[in-house]
Amino acid sequence: MPDFLLEVGLEEIPARMIAAAQAELARRVEELLTRERLLSGGSVISYSTPRRLAVLVSGLVAAQADAEEQLTGPSWGVAFKNGEATPAALAFAKKAGVDVAALQKITNPKGEYVSATVLRNGRSAAAVLTEQLPKELASLYWPKNMYWRPGKPERFVRPVKWLLAILDHAIVPVEFAGVHAGNLSYGHRILHGDHAVTINKPADYAAALESAKVLVDVEARRQRIRKALDAVTRTVPGARWREDEALVDTVTHLTEWPSVLLGSFEAEYLTLPEEVLVTVMRDHQKYFAVEDAAGKLAPHFLAVLNTEADEQGIGVIRHGNERVLRARFNDARFFWDFDQKISLEDRVEMLRSVTFQKDLGSYYVKTEANLRIAEQVALLVKKRGVAVDELSLLIATKLAKTDLTAELVKEFTELQGVVGGLYARAQGLSETVAQAIYSQYTPASTDDAIPATVEGQILGIADRFQTIAAMFAIGLEPTGSKDPFALRRAANGVVKILAESELPLTFSDLVKAADASSNTLAAFFRERVEFYLRDVRGFRYDVVGAVLAAGHDDVRDAIARSEALTAVRGSEDFAAISTAFKRIMNILRQATEKGEFEHQSTIVVNDGYLIDPAEKTLNQQMVMLIPTIDKWRAERKYQEALEQIAALRPHVDLFFDKVMVMADDPAVRLNRLALILRVLGGFSWIADFSEIVAG
What we know:
Elements: E1 4-10, H1 15-35, E2 39-49, E3 52-60, E4 67-75, H2 76-79, E5 80-81, E6 84-85, H3 87-96, E7 104-108, E8 111-120, H4 125-138, E9 160-167, E10 170-171, E11 175-176, E12 179-180, E13 184-186, E14 196-198, H5 205-210, H6 218-233, E15 240-241, H7 245-252, E16 259-264, H8 274-285, E17 287-291, E18 297-305, H9 311-339, H10 344-347, E19 355-357, E20 361-362, H11 363-383, H12 390-399, H13 407-411, H14 418-426, H15 431-438, H16 454-473, H17 487-500, H18 507-514, H19 518-536, H20 541-549, H21 555-568, H22 572-593, H23 613-635, H24 638-647, H25 649-658, H26 666-681
Antiparallel strand pairs: 1-3, 1-9, 2-3, 4-8, 5-6, 7-8, 9-10, 11-12, 13-14, 15-17, 16-18, 17-18, 19-20
């Protein structure tokens, strides 16, 4: 079975876009081959560097097998009139390539239709790939695209420079963006002179490019970088490089043939806060920080290069990197000293000239709104038994955005919030105030920890929720993949803080504090809670659906219900009772549609209409359970409640085995509907069990 290799050569792709594009191209190629019956047990491996995306497929089927296909045409009544073929039948037969006599009648949910069975001859893999691959390449998603050929329609992240497409030893004549595929790739731009590399067969690809100073395997580059960071750091006694997986990932996608050099800077710069120094090194220069055995920043850095050089060349490169870093540190020190001339308190008025959003006014206006929410939330939290330093919270909220006027933040925008916290500490404000300001933007992602203090948590929630509510109020909610104000990320932060803190707050509390409209916000936050439960906490999709159908207002409560449901969902009794609950819901739905009652709340169980022993027993069990259920609900003992649901199984099974719910007698029928509603309502506050999928 032949192997297939596709490589798209480009001008340098932005590092942040490479991983997603690599994965998408591999997925598209695999789906294409599967759809076209060309992949049977083979493997699909993807590669990437800043200048290329590649997919290697092993075990490709050389050609499709012939296959029968049933085509459906017009309705039988249109195709044949009085037993005679109409022009519609003739046209369909011609299109299918069969005689009219070969047309068949089939019946589908829409009625009787004309059908024809045709034999499709299998096409070669090369023919399919030549036709389909350009479409897949054109469909790749890029956050930003560009045109580069005047008058031509294709858009891509960067200009396409070469295409390589080979099926075993043969070139597949793929064409995209005016570039025709061949069997040539290109090596490292500097170390190999950007000379062409002939790829004789797909299996030679990685080795051939490695000889041209290009490591196409992303994981191989990553490990090479990590080993080099370890080795170079060992030249400094007692030192270690500060672990930074995100930066490792970035430099992996910035290089084709990585190496590492050690640089140094003057120890006098260590008087600046570590956060400032590390941000300058990491975000602006892509350098790794070095720390001593005690975890303190050392006067060294590690730079990952996309080349290799002799000792003299490395010396020149090191000197250049040190000079650039020294200039950046000098800028940071100047801005730090300059900013201290104006206190954070004096910067509050300056926020009037900093726009938050053109229709919502300045950051001064936003700060006032944040203060109103923070104050109400603090009062509520204190009333519910959680200690809050209210004065420090309000001071922190008032000063939280003032560092937007600081020169250091204007130069290093990544330090927003952090600089405010550092300045608060340097200016003698309390540690509670400084910590709250410092951590106001955490968590920045679902992997980050939430603020460590109650005051920081409330400030973070108030700021995010105010932004979300204000944007929704003027119609700027996220739509589809568009979220220009990062409101989903803000909501993720709110959900994570509510989930992982001890704050006794619900979504409704925040809506009330922000004086917001809850309708559209409720759906938006439900989506974010679902994301948290599924993607962050890892609960099954059906568990999450069942839990959220019963409510998402209290995030920690939703987590507790998800944990309980996960613990019991695998038991045989619970699976059976879940099926019974689905049956109950279907019966109640149908009864509602037939007008058996106006509203479920209007029907109650009347003992006088309980006739069959099975329904009497089930009712007695529920009556005895209700006080215990209420106690479990108050104490959030959801697993105990769910285990009791499973224990009801024999009574529920017997009821459905012996009792006809929709009895002829209207009074008995309504009473039995009330009974199954009592059973359902006894536990529906935990989850909607009809959402649970067996298995």
